[in-house]
Amino acid sequence: MILHELIDYPTLRVIWWVLLGVILIGFAAMDGFDLGTGILLPFVARDDIERRVVINTVGPVWEGNQVWLILGGGAIFAAWPQLYAVSFSGFYLAMFAILFALILRPVGFKFRSKRESATWRSAWDWALFIGGFVPALIFGVAIGNTLQGVPFRIDNEMRIFYDGTFFGLLNPFALLCGLVSVAMLTMHGAAWLALKTQGPVRERSVRYGRLAAIATIVLFALGGVGVWLLVNGYSITSPIDPAGPSNPLLKEVARSQHAWFANYAAHPWTLIAPALGFLGPLLVLVLIGSKREILTLLSGFVTMFGIISTVGVSMFPFILPSSEQPNASLTVWDTSSSHVTLFIMLVTTVIFLPIILAYTSWVYSILRGKVTARQIEGGGHAY
Amino acid sequence: MELDIVSLSRFQFALTALYHFLFVPLTLGLSMLLAIMETVYVMTGRPIWRQMTQFWGVLFGINFVMGVATGIVMEFQFGMNWSYYSHYVGDIFGAPLAIEGLMAFFLEATFVGLFFFGWDRMSKVGHLITTWAVALGSNFSALWILIANGWMQNPVGAVFNVQTMRMEIGSFFDVLFNPVAQAKFVHTVSAGYVTASIFVLGVSAWYLLKGRAPEIAKRSMTVAASFGLAASLSVVVLGDESGYLANEHQKMKLAAMEAMWETEPAPAGFTVFGFPDQKTRETHFAIHIPMVMGLIATRSLDTEIPGIKELVDGTYGHIRRGILAYDALTQIRALPRGETVPEELKASFEDNGRWLGYALLLKRYVDDPRLATDEQIAKAAWDTVPNVPTMFWSFRIMVALGFYFILLTATFFILSARHQLDRRRWLLRVALFSIPLPWIAAELGWIVAEVGRQPWSIEGILPTAVAVSSLGVTTLLITIAGFALIYTVLIVIEVGLMLRAIRKGPEGMDDHGPETAPAPSASATVVAAE
Known about the structure:
A: mainly alpha, 6 strands, B: mainly alpha, globular, iron (chain A), heme (chain A)
C-alpha cells in the first residue's frame, strides 16, 4: 500500500492524538449528560413520575451516547495499542469498578419501570446513580493519576508490569481530579435536564446546576494549583524522532516541577484551552435557568472541551508517563500503531464520523422537546 | 483448574464472552425479524403486523440491553487481562474493533432508542428505516468482530516488526477478505437468525397451546419458520465451509474435533461416536462411517488429512526453527541503536521468523527458549493439541442440533404452508421445548472455535500463556467473583422480565385502539401465500 504515504507518520500521530481528544471530549459531552442525569436522579426528582421523567429524558439516547466510550476503547486499541494495554491492565480494578457500574446502567434504564414495586424501582434508581457517579469519579481519578505518572515498567520484550495498587490510585490529587470530573458532568446533566424538563424538576436541576458550575470552576482552579505545587511533570531530554519506531524504551525522560506548564510558555495560544475550561462553566452559571437552554447545553460542551484539552495540552507529547521507569513513558512519538494502520483508521474515521454526526443530529431533532409526565403516562413505550 | 494467572484469565474471558453471547444471537436474529415484520406492515398497511413488531420489540429490548451491558466488558477486557496480546497484535486486531464502533455500534445504538420512542414521532417509512438501521447495525457489528476473530484463527496480512516487537499490518485487504472471517461471519449471523426464529416459533407455539393471540402467533410462526429454515440451511452449509477452511489453516483443530490420532488413508472416515482419551491418545469404542470426513475436509477422494500424532511430529521442527528466530531476534534487539544488523542475523530471522511463535510456546517452561531441554520441547509440542474430548463432543452436539433445526423449521414451514400450524399440539410442544437448543448450539460453536485454537491466542503466532497481563491471582479472583455475581443476578432478573412480558402477551400491545382489532382469520392465507 502506497496511499498511506500521502500523510507522513509524525503528522498522522498528531492527528490521532487530536482524535483521541475528540473521542474523549465526544464521550464527555454526549455520554456526560447521561451520567450527570444519573447522578442527579435521586436529588432532582422526588416521586416516581418525576423520576420517570428524568429517566426518559435520556431513555432514547443513552445507548448511542455510550458508544462514544466503546469507540474510545476501540480507537485507543487501534491507534495507541500500548496505551490501551498499559492503562487498562494497570488500572485493572478501577476499570472493573467502571464496568460494574456501567453494566448497571443499561439494565437500570430498561428494567426499572417494568414492575410496579416501589422497592424495585428505588433499587434501580440507586443503581442508575451509581452507574453515573462511579464512572464519572473514576475517569477523573484516572486522569489525575495520568498527570502524576503511573507506576509501570516495560521490559525488553515489551512486556508490561504494573507495580501500583488500587488504593494507590486514590491519592489526594487524583481524588481532586475525580471531583472535577463529577462536578462538570453533574453540571452538564443539569443543563440537559433544564432543556428537557419543566416545572419542579427543572427548577431543582437549575439549582443543582448552578452549584455544580461553581464547583467546577473552583475545583478546576484548585486542580491547576495542585499541578503547579504538587505534581512533577515530565519532559523528553534525548533527541526526538517523530517518525521513529513505536518503542517507548528508546528515549530519555526527566521529571521536574512545572514541566506541565512548558507548552503554555512555548505556545501561549494554547492557553485558550484552560480559558475555555473556565469560560464554559461560567456561561452555564449565567445561562442556566434562562430560556437559552440549548446555549446552556453547548456551554457544557465548551466546558468538556476546555477541561479535557487542558489535560492534553499540558502533557503533550506525553500520553501516559511512567513514574517508575520515566524512560518507558508513553508519548505521541513512540506509542502509536504503524503508519499504515493510522492511515486506514483515519480514512475510516473521516468517512464515518460525519455520517454518525448527521444521523445522530437527525435522531435528536426527532426527539426534541420537553419530556412530560403526560407523555409517559400516555405512551406504552416509555421507561 | 489451576489457580494461575493464565487459567484464571482464560476462565474470566470464557465466562464473560459466553455470557455475552447468550444475548447476541437473539439480537442479531430478532432485529432482522422485526425489520421483516415491519416491512410487511408498511407494505400491506395491516396493523396486526405493527402490533407484532411492537410485541417482539419488547422482548428484543430486554435482550438488547443485556447485550449492551455485557458488550462493554468485552471491548475493555483485551487491555485489562491480555495486555501483551494488546501490544503484540493491537496494530491489526484493534482496527476492526474500532471500525465496529464507527460503522456498527453507533448505527444500532443511535436508532434503537428511536425504535422504541419513535412510533408516534415519525412516518411509517421513517420508522421502518429506523428498524432496518438497528438490524443492519447489529449485523455489521458481527461482521467486524468476526473479521477480528477470523484473524485470530488465520492471521493473514501481518508482518513482525523487530523494532517494535509486535505484529503490524501488511495488507489490510487480506485481513478484510480473510476467507475464515467471511465463512465465520455468515455462519454466526445465520446461527443468530436460527436462534431468533426458534425463539419466535417456540413462544408463538406456547400462545397457540394456550389459545391466545392466534392471529399474531400464526403469522409470527410463518415468518420464523421460513426465515429459520433458510438460516438453518445456511448455518450448516457455512459450518461445512468452516470445516473445509479449518483443514487448510487449522489442521490441528480439525484433527482434534475428529479425535483423529493417526493419519488415515484418504478419504478418511468420520467418527460418529467414541470416547477420546487425551492421556492414552486413542479413541475408545469408536464407530466410523467410511470416507465422509475426507470428503468434508478436503472435498476430494485422494487428499490425506493428517492425524494428531503426525501434526505434533511436525511441530518439533517448527519449535526448533522458532528458537533460531528467537535467538536472532534477541541478538538484533540487543544491538546498540543505529548499528547495522549483521547479514547472518538478518538472514536467520528472515528464514525462521514465521516460526517465532513456536519458540514462545516454550515460555511456559523456561524463560529463555534457547535454553529449553528436549523434554521441554516435547511438552511444548504436545501442548499444541487442544482438549480432544471437549472438541469431539462439542462439535458433534452442535452439528446434530444444526440438523435438528433444519428438520424443525422445515416441519413448521410445511405446516404453515398448509395452514395447519395449530393442528398438532405435540409439535407445538416440541417447538416450545426447543427454545433453549439454539443457545446450546451457539455456545458449543464458540467452544469448538476457541478451545480448538488453543494453545494459541493468535494461531501459530502468539501463545495464550504469554498473552496475559501481569496481574495478581487475588485481583483476578475478585473480578471473577464480581462478574459471576452481577451476571447471575442479572440473568435471573432478565429471564424473569422476559417471562413476564411473554405472559402479558401481545394482546393490547398497540396503543392505537380499534384499528388493531385482530384481522379476519382469512388473512392468514394471504400471508402464507406471500
